[in-house]
Amino acid sequence: MGIPLYGQNKQGGSIDDHLILKDPWAYTAGFLDADGYITITKRGEGRAGIIATGDRGRLHCEQLHKTLGCGVLQLDLKLHKNSKRSQHRLQFYSKADLQKLLKNTRPFLKLKTKQADCVLELLDLRGRTSDLVKQRRDDLYRVVKWENWRDVKAEELLDDWNVDEQVVTSWAQEDPEMIRLVDDASVLVGDI
């Protein structure tokens, strides 16, 4: 399946060049790495999105939305009231949309693999309520926040959480399958 992208010719006029991509998921992963985000909100909700500006950005977002068949398209958002340039977003909120996006782009992500893994794990933990799972959700939130902000506010985050970088690294390396197995076992033991 290819994705058509539109551009301008050398004279600035609009043209309908169709750039056929062999894998729109690989293209989307590149877009997500460069001009997107993967995060977990303070409320513990996974989110992802792609942000673009201008007419070309609008066309990219529209075509990605159409090709991927998921996400919420928001067009012509003003950055501020005096701005002539508009911002366009393709955002992913629902469990189904996030899973579709992240499972398909995950093999191609270069910069946001940990964030994608954490959000996918968070989605797999939905419906579980044990203390172990609640703690894991907090850890996943912190890992994603660390990955997204460590180059800007690493010391502030570590101070806030009262941990060192090794602890954050250990949170990222925990085995999701083991968490689920221990949670399942605790539910069974609790029922006896």
What report would you give on this structure?
The chain is built from 7 helices and 6 strands. The protein is 55% helix and 16% strand. Strands 3-4-6-5 form a 4-stranded antiparallel sheet. The protein has a two-stranded antiparallel sheet with strand order 1-2. A hairpin with a 5-residue loop joins strand 3 (36-40) and strand 4. The protein folds into 2 domains: 1-110, Homing endonucleases (Endonuclease I-creI, Roll); 125-192. The protein is of the alpha+beta class.
Tell me the span between the first and last alpha carbons. 52 Å
Largest sheet: 4 strands, antiparallel
Label the structural class.
alpha+beta
Name given to the CATH homologous superfamily of the largest domain: Homing endonucleases
CATH top level label of the largest domain? Alpha Beta
* Count of individual helical segments: 7
Q: Work out the helicity level.
A: 55-70%
Question: What is the second-level CATH architecture of the largest domain?
Answer: Roll
Overall tally of domains: 2
Low-confidence stretches: 1-17
Query: Shape, please?
Result: globular
Report the order of strands and helices.
EEHEEHEEHHHHH
Strand content: 15-25%
The CATH topology of the largest domain is Endonuclease I-creI
Mean pLDDT: 86
Care to count the β-strands?
A: 6
